Amino acid sequence: MSNDNGTLVYDVPINRAHCTKGPFGMIDCQDTGESVTIRIVVNSSEGNPVVPDGGQKGVITMYPLAGGSGVVEVQPGWTLTPPWVNNNVPIN
User: What is the rounded CA–CA span in Å between residue 14 and residue 12?
Assistant: First the structure.
């Protein structure tokens, strides 16, 4: 994590695993070797104009870093997340 004048940057590694239900309902997961790093950029100083009194502040941007398993670099600085991340990773 880094902080640059109110902008927080997190790099979050995500490893893909294949899971099956084993004996007695126990879940067994195996690492597939595929991974991607998602960069999360939080600008906490930018306000949201649609929130009265500026009670909610911040802009959050998430994108995959180039070089991950299945990441498509459309052009420098513009990447697409692989389908296995979009379909299988819960973001809460």
Answer: 6
